[in-house]
C-alpha cells in the first residue's frame, strides 16, 4: 500500500519534472549571420544613437548641395537649362550611348535564345536615322510610374536561360510628376526617348503628357504641397476620372495641394472630408498635359514638407522598405540598391544620381575613396567610423550604414544576396535574399578568399 502511494505520487510529479527539464523550443533561426530579431526594428538602431534628432544638413545646406549636384555631376541633367532647340548630334549621342545591341547571347523569359533577327528589329525601331539635325525641345511630364528601357520594347531579356530576375533591357523608372524632355520617337510611334533629371532612356508614350515648359516646372515648385514619406502612397479609386485613379506615388514624390478646395465640393464623386485634395498630371487622348484634382487619403504616409535630415529619420525611412522584393532597375514595382538609397534621400529633398556607378564617384557629395593600396584594417576602421545614412559602395552595389553591434557594422540594403563562410566550413554559403534586408558587413564575402570589405570603392557621406 505504501509502495502504491509512492508510485502514484511519482507519476503525478513526472509531467512537471519532464516539462521542467525539457529545453524551450528555439526561436526560428535567421539566415543572416549575426542577425537578431531586435535588429529588424528601426527603434533598436535609433535607441543606440546619442543625438538621433540632430539635423545633419539644414534645408539651406541641402539646397546648396543639390545646386552643386546639378552643376558638377555629369550624370544629372538640368532640364530647365536645356536650350529651346536640341542639336541632333546630342540626341544621337544620348541614344547611341544606351541603345547598343548586346554582343553576347540573350534569352527571353521562357529560356529561349533571343534571335539576331529579333535584336535587329528592335534596333530598327530605334530609328536613329530619323533624328533631325535640330529640333525644338518638347517638354513633358510622367503621369504614371513607368519603366525606362534600353530599347523601345517590352521584351525582357536575360543573361542565361532560367535567370528571369535581371532584365538586361530594364534601366530604371520614372514617377508621376517627373518632368522630361522628349527628344526622339521610335519608328513604331509607341515610344519616346526622354531625358529626365537623372536618366536618358526609352519610355512608353502612353505614360508621358506633353505641355508647356514653364507650367511643368512651376507645378513642381508650387506650395502648399505634400511629400510621400511612406514606401508608396495611392490616390483614391475613382471611376469618374481614371487618369487620377489608383495612382501610385513613391517615397519622396512631391505633389501640390489644392488647399482652397471648397469642403462641400466633390472630387470625382467623393467629398474630401477624409482626404487631401492634390493635383496630378493627366495625359489627354491627344497626348497633351492637363492638371486635375485627385484625392489622397488622410491615412497615407505623407508630410507637409520634406523631412528633417536626421539620423533617426534616415533609419525610419530606410526600414519602410524592409522586406520589399529586389527589383533590378525598378522592376517588379519595386527598386534596386541604388534606387532604394536615392528614394530614401529624396524624402529629405536630397538629390543623388540614379546608378551606383555615378553615386559612388559623385563630386557633389562628401566622398571617402578607397584604392587597392588601402589595407583591410584601414577599410574596417573607416567603416567603424561610419554614421547612419553613410553609403558604402562596392562595384555594382550600395549599402546604407545603420549602426554598430559588437564591433561589426550593420547595413540595410536592397540586394539579390550575400555570401559568407561559417567558421570551420570549407565552402561559402550563398544566401538568396532578393530584397531589402539588414546584414552585418564584415562577414560578407565576395569570393572564397576576398572579404567584401576589401572591394569597397568609396563611402559617400551626405553630411557636412
Automatic annotation (TrEMBL):
Keywords attached to this entry: Hydrolase, Protease, Signal, Thiol protease
InterPro entries linked to this entry: NLP_P60_dom, P60_peptidase_YkfC, Papain-like_cys_pep_sf, SH3b1_dom
Protein's UniProt keywords contain Zinc: no
Signal peptide residues on this chain, from the entry's feature table: 1-20
Pfam families: NLPC_P60, SH3_6
NlpC/P60 domain residues: 323-404
Tagged with keyword Signal: yes
Taxonomy, superkingdom: Bacteria
Domain SH3b1: 157-204
Protein name: NlpC-P60 family protein
Amino acid at each position: 500500500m505504501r509502495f502504491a502511494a509512492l508510485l502514484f505520487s511519482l507519476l503525478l510529479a513526472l509531467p512537471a519534472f519532464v516539462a521542467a527539464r525539457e529545453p524551450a523550443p528555439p526561436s526560428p533561426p535567421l539566415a543572416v549571420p549575426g542577425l537578431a530579431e531586435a535588429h529588424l526594428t528601426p527603434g533598436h538602431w535609433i535607441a543606440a544613437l546619442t543625438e538621433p534628432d540632430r539635423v545633419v544638413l539644414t534645408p539651406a545646406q541641402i539646397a546648396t548641395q543639390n545646386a552643386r549636384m546639378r552643376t558638377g555631376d555629369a550624370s544629372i541633367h538640368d532640364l530647365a537649362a536645356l536650350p529651346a532647340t536640341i542639336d541632333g548630334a546630342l540626341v544621337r549621342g544620348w541614344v547611341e550611348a544606351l541603345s547598343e545591341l548586346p554582343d553576347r547571347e540573350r534569352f527571353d523569359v521562357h529560356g529561349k535564345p533571343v534571335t539576331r533577327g529579333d535584336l535587329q528589329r528592335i534596333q530598327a525601331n530605334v530609328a536613329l536615322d530619323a533624328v533631325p539635325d535640330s529640333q525644338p525641345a518638347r517638354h513633358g511630364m510622367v503621369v504614371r510610374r513607368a519603366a525606362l528601357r534600353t530599347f523601345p520594347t517590352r521584351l525582357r531579356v536575360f543573361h542565361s536561360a532560367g535567370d528571369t530576375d535581371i532584365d538586361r533591357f530594364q534601366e530604371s523608372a520614372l514617377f508621376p510628376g517627373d518632368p522630361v524632355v522628349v527628344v526622339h520617337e521610335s519608328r513604331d510611334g509607341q515610344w519616346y526617348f526622354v531625358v529626365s533629371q537623372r536618366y536618358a532612356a526609352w519610355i512608353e508614350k502612353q505614360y508621358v503628357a506633353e505641355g508647356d515648359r514653364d507650367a511643368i516646372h512651376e507645378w513642381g515648385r508650387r506650395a502648399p504641397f505634400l511629400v510621400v514619406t511612406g514606401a508608396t502612397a495611392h490616390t483614391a479609386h475613382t471611376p469618374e476620372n481614371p487618369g487620377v485613379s489608383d495612382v501610385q506615388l513613391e517615397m519622396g514624390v512631391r505633389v501640390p495641394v489644392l488647399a482652397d478646395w471648397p469642403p462641400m465640393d466633390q472630387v470625382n464623386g467623393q467629398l474630401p472630408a477624409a482626404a487631401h485634395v492634390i493635383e496630378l498630371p493627366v495625359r489627354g487622348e491627344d497626348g497633351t498635359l492637363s492638371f486635375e484634382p485627385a484625392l489622397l487619403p488622410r491615412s497615407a504616409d505623407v508630410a507637409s514638407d520634406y523631412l528633417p535630415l536626421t539620423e533617426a529619420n534616415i533609419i525610419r525611412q530606410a526600414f519602410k522598405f524592409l522586406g520589399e522584393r529586389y527589383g533590378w532597375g525598378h522592376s517588379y514595382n519595386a527598386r534596386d540598391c541604388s534606387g532604394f538609397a536615392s528614394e530614401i534621400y529624396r524624402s529629405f529633398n536630397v538629390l543623388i544620381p540614379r546608378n551606383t556607378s555615378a553615386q559612388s564617384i559623385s563630386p557633389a557629395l562628401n566622398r571617402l575613396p578607397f584604392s587597392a593600396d588601402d589595407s583591410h584594417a584601414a577599410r574596417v576602421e573607416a567603416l567603424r567610423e561610419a554614421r547612419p545614412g553613410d553609403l558604402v559602395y562596392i562595384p555594382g552595389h550600395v549599402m546604407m550604414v545603420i549602426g554598430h553591434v559588437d564591433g561589426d557594422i550593420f547595413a540595410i540594403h536592397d540586394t539579390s544576396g550575400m555570401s559568407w563562410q561559417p567558421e570551420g566550413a570549407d565552402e561559402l554559403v550563398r544566401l538568396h535574399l532578393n530584397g531589402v534586408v539588414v546584414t552585418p558587413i564584415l562577414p560578407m564575402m565576395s569570393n572564397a578568399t576576398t572579404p567584401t570589405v576589401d572591394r569597397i570603392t568609396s563611402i559617400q557621406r551626405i553630411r557636412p
